[in-house]
Amino acid sequence: NSICYQNSMLRIFHRKHLLLNLNKNLTTQLSQQQNQKVVSFDDNVKQRRDEANRSILVQVQSAHSFHELQSYCSSVGTVKKMMHYSTGVEPMHFIIVEFAKASDLQNIYTMSSYIEDTQVVPVQSSYLWFRAATKKLSKNKNKSIHKLNVENGNHILRDNELLQVLNSCADVNEQMVNLHNSTRLNEVGTRLRFLVAKQIEMAISGMFPNSAALPFGSSVNGFGKMGCDLDLVLRLNDESKVITDETRLVYHCKALSGSERSISQRHMEVIGDILQLFLPGCSQVRKILQARVPIIKYYQQLTDVECDLSMSNTSGYHMSDFLYIMGAMDHRVRPLIFTIRRWAATVGLTNSSPGRWITNFSLTLLVIGFLQNLPKPVLPSLNALVKLAGKNDKYITDDGINCTFLRDINVYLATNPIENTDSLKILLLQFFVYYSQFDFSSKAICLNESMAIAKPEHSALYIVNPLERGLNVSKNVSPEELEKFRLEVRNAAWLLESDETKDSNWGIIPLLTAKRILSMNNGNLPRTKLLEVSKLFEDDKDGPVYKNNDVKKQVQ
Ligand code: CTP
Ligand code: MG
Question: Does any ligand 1 atom lie closer than 6 A to the CB of residue 230?
Fold first, then answer.
């Protein structure tokens, strides 16, 4: 291992110095990740919400305002961390300031004021701007200011920058790890999303002091990339505040009238109006209240985050927990899913607007289903986690969906070490071949049991919703889009298997660039290459063989 490592480092040495440093850092990060105990999803969310409760977002003139702001804030409370980022074509600059205590924030609010302008709504929130000083400031009176941990940016890597990173890698595995590390949602992006959630809680805190706007989806499930949308579910009374035997004084509450759905729609309408009329930065508010799960879409321009807010989608949060667990089980899962999601976007299988195509969520379940189904599985079934659930893992949502499964994966891994040691490249190739051979016409992907089951109905693609087993997650996918998926996975398998040359287009790069063999070739794959890929599995004497008569027939 150490010789391989040295060799690969030597090769990289001749490339750009910047990229060398990036790779070194990422390698260290990866080995650290492998040895760390996994923090549970709930604890992670709790810690992030707590951080947001101690943080403000301050617009500044430029990054140079950093020290002045630091000095000002330190005279009010103890500053723990400051992070700069900018957004927009003519960049607006912001600094996230995290204080040590929530009470520091109260002092900040007490000391802050509103501009004198009858044309604005005077709202108190954690979004502020830093005025130029009217008096010349005495130099840093506060001696307690020490060097703060400064982290920069919410920069989204451009395609050519990413290609440069991938090109400098030693092999495909390193490419996939680097793709994940350089495109995943970073610290600033995560903090901004929790500040967006907090803005809503703060806005309604007078009436609903125990409300919780909980992020779910890719912002928190470990599969989010820089710039990803924020999915939020708003609960007016978080579970912690329900009546107990000791409670003597109980709040009078407004009686509800009408169906649950119509009430929820009315509430969402009001929340949408609050966002639109009162909350700084919230723009382009669209209420989509007739959908199965009614949502409000809006853009938070101070944080540059697109949001989908719902009030009734409680299973989405637990689904995110499940995906988080799957991603944390093994260090290969996230780089694999990132590569596949990026490949799917490049070849046009996924699309940022909703439609008849596969969503990122469905695609993620397809990868998990594949990893569960290997001869030596990388991931356990959901049922295996359900069996190990303890009393703290019990969750039934308001609408009766059972979301009980083991949350602490350290418990699972202690007794069920993952035996599969395949490289990321092999797993990626196996994924493509697995789905090029999958019998979509009669089988459904089922993560509960780690196996393909008979399809309950005739949707083109059927992925059983792991938490609501009666539902198909990919019901929206049309037969044409499924066919496109089948062609693209074959094409990708061929591209990946055929390319080991070290010019500028090698490894996963052809999968992530727009050049596609399919279009040049009218969808027909070169026969020899495809058979070579299938052979890769036939040689594996340990497990079931993924023979592909179907594919072979097509290319003959
Ligand atoms: N979800 C679900 N059932 C569905 C669709 C979505 O439970 N049929 C939940 C999942 O937890 C999913 C989340 O809602 O992660 C958000 O859905 P979506 O925004 O479509 O997917 P993301 O995972 O957030 O991916 P993206 O980065 O494309 O937003
Ligand atoms: Mg999302």
Answer: no
C-beta of residue 221 within 8 angstroms of C-beta of residue 323: yes
DSSP state of 219: G
Per-residue pLDDT band for 178 (boundaries 50, 70, 90) equals very high
In sequence order, the 6+-apart residues with CB closer than 8 A to the CB of 257 are 263
**Closest ligand 1 atom to the C-alpha of 320?**
11
Strand ranges of the sheet holding 55-60, from the earlier edge strand across to the other edge = 127-129, 55-60, 92-99, 79-87, 149-152
- How many angstroms from the chain centroid is the CA of residue 31? 21
Total residues belonging to the chain: 556
pLDDT 10s digits, 206-259: 999 999 999 999 999 999 999 999 999 999 988 667 788 888 888 898 888 888
Alpha-helical (H) ranges within 92-186 are 102-111, 159-167, 172-183
How far is the centre of ligand 2, averaged over its atoms, from the C-alpha of 439 (Å)? 29
* pLDDT reading at 154 higher than 90: no
- Among 44-53, 103-112, 514-523, 525-534, the range of highest mean pLDDT: 44-53
Give pLDDT tens digits for 187-202.
999 999 999 999 999 9
CB 429 within 8 A of CB 361: no
Q: How far apart are CA 289 and CA 262, in angstroms?
A: 9
Contacts of 358 (CB under 8 A, 6+ apart): 344, 349, 350, 366, 461, 474, 477, 481, 485
Q: What is the CA(556)–ligand 2 centre distance, in A? A: 41
CB 156 within 8 A of CB 191: no
Residue 451 burial (CB < 10 Å; 0-12/13-18/19+)? Answer: middle
Mutation pick for ligand 1 pocket among 306, 320, 351, 361 (CB with most ligand atoms within 8 Å): 361
Average pLDDT over residues 371-399: 94
pLDDT tens readout for residues 81-123: 999 988 887 888 999 999 999 999 999 999 999 888 778 889 8
Band (pLDDT 50/70/90 cuts) for residue 158 is confident
* Ligand 1 atom with least separation from CA of 360: 28
CB-based burial label for 172 (10 Å; 0-12, 13-18, 19+): buried
From CA 260, how far away is CA 58, in angstroms rounded? 39
Residue located nearest, by CA, to atom 2 of ligand 1:
316
Which tokens sit at 509?
A: 């790069």
| CB of 360 closer than 6 angstroms to any ligand 1 atom | yes
Is 311 within 8 Å of 264 (Cβ atoms)? yes
